[in-house]
Automatic annotation (TrEMBL):
Superkingdom of source: Eukaryota
Designated name of the protein: DUF674 family protein
UniProt-listed Pfam families: DUF674
InterPro entries: DUF674 (IPR007750)
Amino acid sequence: MSTTTAMSATKSEGPTVSVKLFVDKERSKVLFAESDNDFADVLFSFLTLPLGAIVRLLGKQSHEIGCLNEVYKSVEDLSAVFFRTKACKTMLLRPFNAAADLCVKLKVKIDDTNPREVFVCPMECRSYREWPVTFFRGSICKCGKDMVYIGKWPPDVDHAAAAAGSNGVFTKGCLKFIITDDLQVAPSSTSLMLSLFDQFGVRDPAFLEQKILQLNAEKITSLLKRSLTTKQAFTAFYFNAPCTNDDSYLCMLPEILHCKQEADANNRSSNVEIKVLQTKNSLSLLYAEVGVDFIDILFGLLSIPLGSITRVYGNRSSNGCVGNIYNSIVECTKGWLEPQCQMLLQFPKVAKHFSSGASKMLQAEEVEARREGDIGCCLYYCFNSMQYSFLQCHCGHSNCFSKSLKFYEINPKVLLGDRYSSSEGFVKPGVEKFMVTDDLRVLPLSLSATAQAVSESKYQFKDLVEKEFNLSKDQVMEILRAALVTRNALSSVLLHPRKKP
């Protein structure tokens, strides 16, 4: 049995993790892989990534994941006046990972978002007994001043150490893992190996070629894309096979297939009213006219962790096999995951202040705020020049002195004198109407935008009709799911499926 080491062909910079592929060259197929904790932890970390972070990391390749890229681009293009605060737009474009303190320990990290950048009021509020801080660029202090960057918050070492496994980030023990082509993960064992050989009809393992890959962040990001777009992630990754989305019409998700929803007041919320411009024969949908409530749910989807999506929708959450990673976590009964890590991966939370209509609908809880405490800071030379050091002053100036201040984290979505009754959501409440195309591109409703949509459709006005929909919670949830699997998100849910000839 030959063993070959293959390095990244395009970019070898940065740390790598090793994975051994067992390849059937005759069928051009990867049967399964073997790895240690490092690679398994990286796979499990996929579940903690917010969808907006995934779109940003994949860049132009994100168009293969349904139409999430159109939602993301809509946030980029939409004026800041439509958001509660300037920080809201930044939060959606660079959503925080609620498990960042753990993921920073991964051997290979693909998310470059830094949730530890600290911003404070540069003027009046620094002398308050309680010092307001925020972790979001573009935030405004309660006094109305723009908050400025002063340094990086030290990692929550105690929390990360308590949650992390004994030897890995999420896993414990010095284990080897077997990962199937469709990303089912389990500890390596003789019985499992024999079962796989039998399943694939392998009579002599010597006929399988072994390939040891060293995967850096770029390659891991590519594997992430494969996990969302194909059922044969390793085969598509190794042979660089093309991935195509299945844009066939979707059936409505039966209510019984949704994850069990808590019977609380949040789930008895009012239905969402929209108007749709479609063809009279119900074969094509041009756009929907919607209010702020629908837009806030749609934009809030960018802050939801991938694991929360998989928990709700199961294997129907994508055109790929990322659901199998989640199922491997759920089915872990042999103690190779720390209980706290298993709960974190099975029920991922959104980061603090990222709650929205989408997080409520998908029952993704918000993580608790960073623990309050004292900040030891230099209040003379270093502070005034914004050369800031946590815990103690390191400037070396004899005329500097330190003072301990209580800090508290402000909500970047709330301004001084904010008249809005709730701090949830990112979009400014109001009477504004928006246009949402079939592929979930969002534009302010205007005559020019609607005229352009009709013109691009090639339909005549006599062929079109406006219909009103009172969307149920299940229908809205299906639209959110459709954003990950098709370019026709609205029509796949709102129009009747085409009958096959």
